[in-house]
Design brief:
Helix content is 41%, strand content 20%. It is an alpha/beta fold and 404 residues long.
């Protein structure tokens, strides 16, 4: 017998899974379902969502504009850390899930709901990101994970399509083109169908945010991105809010064929998965941020920070955004960004994102020291003793190794 549930707040996107789950929750638990859709930059995907949720059986739907909060409090902190998972993935979906789950918990409190629900499968990472956030913010809330629920009878996407047809639930996917996509201000991801074959090239018609490099303009685009304490604050001298800045750079970079990634990643649950990502603006921002850091950060501080990038990315990817170790790590990262102020000039051309200039009022670069021309500040003979001391252990090792 199903557990007695009175009111559920469902993380709702209007996609296949959550569209089916609304009706399934009502049938299974005879409970009230309140949908919550977070606007984190999906654009037209939010159109008609209210009508669809209510017609499917939800008593109410919240649609909240979280774009600025997402960019400011989730994307930018990861940018300050230069966080990249497995050297390739800029964490687009990973960063959005804890924000969505946080708002779910807030709505559940407001509505006096006893449960929250998500539509992530038992194979993926999102289930962990949602549920670890629920636990961190309200450990007493009841969690319904539909795909892991004993009452869940669907065993494939095909069976869910049939269920949707039975109840007349409109879907953004079709049986012939069942790609799973997730879009926000930072990226759009594509998974499933032909993409499950790691040898198959992604068809061009799946891409949304980026032109192919072949179709990009033949003339390069130059753009200047300004940073303050590690955060992008202006493009070509024009100050913008975090969300508007990301929107702007996404279009600019996407038109130049920048930001496509095709990777096989290691999911937290233990399996490998192929994902095709479009992260146009993020790709440019990450490169520009690194360029400004190159002239403003101390060498040893940068080395230590860089050693923490894999851990930061892993924590974000695995859903530990609200864990104490993440809070501590972010505090260190942010302390390294105090002097990361300046501007990077970027050249965007047919899929290439090239740094062609950088400047900063806090620059540690000195032409007087770095020049190959005659200078009055550096005695090159000083390097002789420096090298001899650093080579001492190598000299001793060789002598002992070859001792008769």
């Amino acid at each position: 017998m199903a557990k007695k549930i009175k009111k559920v707040v469902l993380a709702y996107s209007g996609g296949l899974d959550t569209s089916v789950i609304v009706r399934w929750l009502i049938e299974t638990y005879q409970c009230e379902v309140i949908c919550f859709a977070a606007d984190v930059g999906q654009k037209e995907e939010l159109a008609g969502l209210k009508k669809k949720a209510i017609s499917t059986g939800a008593s109410k739907i919240y649609i909240e504009d979280l774009r600025e909060e997402f960019a400011r409090d989730f994307v930018f902190p990861a940018l300050r850390a230069n966080a990249i998972y497995e050297g390739t993935y800029l964490l687009g979906t990973s960063l959005a899930r804890p924000l969505i789950a946080k708002k779910q918990i807030e709505i559940a409190k407001k509505e006096k709901a006893d449960s929250v629900c998500h539509g992530a499968t038992g194979k993926g990472n999102d289930q962990v990101r949602f549920e670890l956030t629920y636990i961190a913010l309200n450990p007493k809330i009841n969690i319904i994970s539909a795909w892991k629920d004993d009452n869940w009878t669907f065993d494939s996407r095909e069976s869910m399509f049939d269920y949707a047809e039975k109840y007349g639930i409109p879907l953004p996917l079709t049986k012939d083109k069942p790609y799973s996509s997730d879009r926000n201000l930072l990226h759009i991801s594509h998974e499933g169908a032909i993409l499950e074959d790691t040898w198959a090239e992604p068809p061009e018609d799946i891409f949304v945010l980026t032109k192919s490099p072949e179709a990009a303009p033949d003339k390069p685009t130059y753009v200047e991105i300004s940073f303050m304490k590690g955060n992008p604050v202006a493009i070509d001298g024009k100050k913008m809010s975090p969300a508007k800045l990301m929107d702007y750079i996404n279009v600019l970079a996407g038109n130049n064929g920048i930001g496509r990634v095709d990777m096989v990643e290691n999911r937290f649950v233990g399996m490998k998965s192929r994902g095709v990502y479009e992260t146009p603006g993020g790709t440019v921002l990450w490169a520009a941020h690194r360029a400004v850091e190159s002239i403003t950060m101390d060498r040893e501080v940068m080395l230590m920070r860089d050693s923490l990038i894999p851990k930061y990315a892993q924590l974000a990817y695995n859903g530990f955004w609200y864990a104490p170790e993440m809070k501590t790590l972010q505090a260190y990262i942010d302390s390294t960004q105090e002097s990361v102020n300046g501007t990077a000039r970027m050249k965007l051309y047919k899929g290439n994102c090239i740094v062609v200039g950088r400047k900063s009022p806090n620059s540690l670069y000195s032409e007087a020291f770095a020049t190959f021309e005659k200078d009055q500040v550096y005695n090159q003979k000083d390097a002789t003793g420096f090298i001899r001391l650093n080579g001492l252990r190598l000299r001793i090792q060789n002598i002992l190794k070859n001792k008769p």
